[in-house]
Design goal:
single chain, about 120 residues, mainly alpha, 5 helices, about 75% helix, about 0% strand, globular
Length: about 120
Amino acid sequence: MAPGREPVLPPEQCSPVTNFLLRLLVSNTFLDLIVLGVIAEGVALIAYRRITGRGLSTRAVLANLFSGGSLVVALRVSLETSVLAEEATAAVAICLSVALVAHIADLVYRWDHAGDPDRAQSTQP
């Protein structure tokens, strides 16, 4: 673990499980695995849609995953100790802005297709 990345509570004040989870949460490797998982989920959902013709449209999948993925990237950047404060602030602001725009796009898509599940699934990418 990088210097300055110690959990908030000293190990003797929390259970081994809590200590493990706190260390895992602040580890860049864990956050990188989450980002890879989001990418894999997107590839799988889009492939399923293209193969079967069922499921969410590509636009709906991408808007949803960009929203969540941008939040994870913002967390990762904010925890990175080697990034300068000004650069980190700008990068986090950009990630959060991307997350907001993607979230709004996802909501607009869902709102347009509310109450019509056949249309929501049959919309072409």
